[in-house]
Structures are given as structure tokens and as C-alpha cells.
């Protein structure tokens, strides 16, 4: 029975159609890949996992939380999809984690596929994650920022920034969302167009970055980025090329916001300094440092209040002596939160202007000094935001403690 004759429900991944594409040897090279993407889009799934066995490929995907498994009869399915990814994105990529930008007439030009490839005992495996622009936050309002944080970020980054700011978080997803939200707000004309797109080698968010190996003329890319945005957004995770373009941007006096996946500001600064960035430029251009933490909030239906026990009292008097409350919360789990005790997310931010101590720490390559300088100059502290969230029943005592201990 021909695939087109059958009526398929939106949640149904058409395995037969994929199988036809997988065994089409008539030179329609990209068809297999685009069939995969089309089917994912059509059935409302964004992730597909492929496991190659000797004669067939096991395929798993999830729609509305429901896991489905099927088989494609092809002995080199994983390799075939990977080859098509490279062809479609014109990227030569090592067989590890990679983010591919794909294009076709019937697929959104901003869609990307994150591909994670690895060798298992039975054969190669490939996990494809589709990200479409609809899933990307467009504004700060779409993020679950703590009240007042949204306005603070707009004020600090969009209205008054003339130099460079660094944003640090230990949560890649949180950093990713913030990045796109800021980019969206700064590019009202071009929507969610990303100035410079490039694939990252690890599962860190898609970020603005240039690899001279990929683009023969990096300066032209930088020029375009600067031209099309008021601010440039970048990430430092892969250093060598990163320090190159950031210096270019700073010399052109373009406000720059850079994103760092790091435990804290000190760790992030150590990574930057190790990039061989010109410390003089960094010290003179760095204006603000922002620390971001994201936590899940307690389910309001099963949150229960309690008084702190002796160990908790001890921790409180050492770490949060100003916290005089004796009511904290915990969750038991209920059917409304699927017994996770969690409901929603809360993003907390703290901001510090770069002070003399931080400048001196950059010049003397002291990551600890930088962190200390930051801690002393914080305008709105995460500790205080966490304290009020703990008392409002949004955070459990353990989350509160974990958050403060991590700062
Ligand atoms: Zn609950």
C-alpha cells in the first residue's frame, strides 16, 4: 500500500515512508534526511534515536511522552543519515557531537539538527534533535526570570551597555534560552536571525562563534554580525577562534555580551584568561558581570511547610545568618506533579559592575580574586532572591542550601 494513500494520525511516525527513502538508491541523496525531519515535524516529535544492528536499524522516538520503537531494514542506516547530514549542511565534522544547519524548500531555513554520534557494542548510534525557531524564546518575557530580573537585564544590557558584559551560568539550557531571548529582542527586524552561526563540538547551546577553518573570511562574518546587530553575542567555549573575533569586536567598540558555561564567574574568567585573550583589552572593556542560576520550583499542591531541624539550623547560622525565618518547605509529590514535587522553573540573576578589584584580578590572572571582587560588588544577590523564594514555598530547604553553597 502506498504511503500517500494511508491516513496517518499526527502522532504517528511513518516508518514505511522512511524505509522507502532509506532504500532509495536512485540518487536522491538528501531524501532520507529530509524524510526524517519531515516526519519528526509532522508527528510533533523533536528527537529521534537510531541504533544500528547487523541487518537493521532500531529507531526510537517520543511523541507526547509516549515512546515508540520500530525497525528500518538497512545495514548502514546510521552512516547513511550522517553522510546526508554532512552533505546537506556542507560541513565536515568529526563523528561526535555536532550541530548541523539544514535547509530545504519545505523546511524552515532556521531549523537545525543537533547530532550526537557514538559507537555502541552492537554498532554506531545517532541521536538527532531537531530545533525549530518556534521553540526558541524570542523575548526576555518568555523566560521564567525572577520578578524584576527581566527589567534589570533590559536596563543593564540593552540600554546602558557600551562595553562588554559576561553572563555566567552552570546550566547550558538556561544560558541558551537567555542568549536567544536577548538576540531576539535586539533584532526586531530580522526576528530570530542569528548573526553568526556555527556548530559546537559539545552539547552546549548553539552560539555565535566563528571557526576560521569553516569560513575563509572570518572578518567579513564579523563585519556582517556587527552591521546587523546593535550588540554581538558570543560564547567562549572554544577558545582559539573565540578570542580572535572578540578582540576584533571590542576594538570596533561594539557592545559585546559573552556567554560562559561555568560554575561561577571566577571559573569563567580563568577560562577566558587561558584563551590567550589580550588582558588589557578585557580589563578596560569589561563593564558588567552577570551570574545566572536556574532552579525548578516546588509543586504548590504538595508543598508542605516545616521548621528547620538541628543540622539545618547549624547551616543557617553559618551560611545565612540574616535569615530569621523558621518556616521552610518540602514536597511529598502528588498526581498533579507526577510525583516529582516540581512545577515550573525560576531563573535568578545577580549583577555586578566591574570594580577596581576585578580589573586588578584580570591583570594579575587571578580567577579567585575576580570572583571575590564580584561577590563584594553584587547589586541584587541570588542569595536574597533564593531566601525569599524559599519562604514563599517556591524552593525547598535543600534547594535553597544547594544554591547558596554553589555561589
Ligand atoms: Zn505535587
What order do the helices and strands come in, and which of them pair?
Elements: H1 15-22, H2 31-43, E1 47-52, E2 57-63, E3 66-72, H3 77-89, E4 98-101, E5 112-119, E6 124-131, H4 149-159, E7 164-169, H5 172-186, H6 218-228, E8 232-235, H7 239-251, E9 256-261, H8 265-274, H9 279-285, E10 286-298, E11 303-306, H10 310-319, E12 328-331, E13 342-353, H11 356-363, H12 367-376, H13 382-391, H14 397-406
Parallel strand pairs: 7-9, 7-10, 8-9
Antiparallel strand pairs: 1-2, 1-6, 2-3, 4-5, 5-6, 10-13, 11-12
Helix pairs in contact: 1-2, 8-12, 9-11, 11-12, 13-14
The protein binds zinc ion.
Zinc ion binds at residues 299, 301-302, 331, 333-334, 336-337, 341.
The CATH architecture of the largest domain comes to 3-Layer(aba) Sandwich
Total number of beta strands: 13
The SSE order reads: HHEEEHEEEHEHHEHEHHEEHEEHHHH
So what's the CATH class of the largest domain? Answer: Alpha Beta
Give the CATH topology of the largest domain. Rossmann fold
Q: Structural class given helices, strands, pairing?
A: alpha+beta
Number of domains: 2
Q: Which molecules are bound besides the chains?
A: zinc ion
Beta-strand percent range: 15-25%
The helix fraction, in percent, is 25-40%
Total helix count? 14
Shape: globular
Mean pLDDT: 75
Give a brief rundown of this model.
Helices cover 37% and strands 22% of the residues. With 407 residues, it is an alpha+beta fold.
Amino acid at each position: 500500500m502506498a504511503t500517500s494513500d494511508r491516513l496517518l494520525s499526527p502522532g504517528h511516525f511513518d516508518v514505511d515512508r522512511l524505509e522507502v527513502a532509506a532504500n532509495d538508491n536512485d540518487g536522491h541523496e538528501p531524501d532520507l534526511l529530509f524524510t526524517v525531519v519531515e516526519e519528526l515535524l509532522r508527528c510533533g516529535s523533536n528527537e529521534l534515536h537510531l541504533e544500528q544492528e547487523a541487518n537493521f536499524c532500531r529507531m526510537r522516538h517520543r511523541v507526547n511522552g509516549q515512546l515508540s520503537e520500530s525497525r528500518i531494514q538497512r545495514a548502514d542506516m546510521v552512516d547513511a543519515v550522517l553522510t546526508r547530514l554532512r552533505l546537506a549542511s556542507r560541513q565536515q565534522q568529526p563523528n561526535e557531537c555536532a550541530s548541523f544547519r539544514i535547509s530545504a524548500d519545505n523546511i524552515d531555513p532556521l531549523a537545525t539538527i543537533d547530532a550526537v554520534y557514538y559507537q555502541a557494542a552492537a554498532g554506531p548510534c545517532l541521536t538527532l534533535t531537531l530545533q525549530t525557531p518556534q521553540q526558541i524564546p524570542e523575548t526576555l518575557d518568555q523566560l521564567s526570570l525572577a520578578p524584576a530580573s527581566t527589567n534589570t537585564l533590559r536596563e543593564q544590557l540593552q540600554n546602558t551597555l557600551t562595553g562588554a558584559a559576561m553572563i555566567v551560568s552552570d546550566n547550558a539550557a538556561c544560558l541558551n534560552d537567555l542568549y536567544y531571548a536577548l538576540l531576539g529582542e535586539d533584532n526586531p527586524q530580522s526576528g530570530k536571525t542569528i548573526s553568526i552561526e556555527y556548530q559546537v563540538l559539545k552539547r552546549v547551546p548553539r552560539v555565535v562563534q566563528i571557526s576560521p577553518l569553516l569560513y575563509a573570511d572570518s572578518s567579513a562574518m564579523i563585519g556582517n554580525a556587527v552591521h546587523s546587530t546593535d550588540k554581538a553575542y558570543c560564547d567562549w567555549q572554544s577558545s582559539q577562534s573565540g578570542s580572535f573575533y572578540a578582540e576584533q569586536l571590542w576594538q570596533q567598540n561594539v557592545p559585546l555580551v559573552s556567554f560562559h558555561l561555568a560554575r561561577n564567574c571566577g571559573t569563567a574568567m580563568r577560562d577566558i584568561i587561558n584563551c590567550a585573550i589580550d588582558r588589557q583589552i578585557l580589563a578596560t572593556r569589561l563593564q558588567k558581570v552577570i551570574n545566572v542560576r536556574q532552579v525548578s520550583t516546588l509543586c504548590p499542591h504538595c508543598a508542605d511547610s516545616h521548621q528547620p531541624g538541628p543540622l539545618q539550623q547549624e547551616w543557617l547560622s553559618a551560611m545565612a545568618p540574616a535569615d530569621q525565618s523558621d518556616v521552610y518547605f518540602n514536597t511529598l509529590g502528588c498526581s498533579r506533579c507526577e510525583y516529582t514535587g516540581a512545577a515550573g522553573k525560576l531563573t535568578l540573576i545577580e549583577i555586578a559592575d566591574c570594580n577596581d578589584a576585578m580589573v586588578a584580578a584580570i591583570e594579575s590572572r587571578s580567577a579567585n580574586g575576580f570572583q571575590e571582587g564580584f561577590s563584594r560588588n553584587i547589586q541584587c544577590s541570588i542569595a536574597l532572591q533564593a531566601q525569599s523564594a524559599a519562604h514563599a514555598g517556591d524552593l525547598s530547604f535543600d534547594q535553597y542550601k544547594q544554591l547558596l553553597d554553589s555561589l
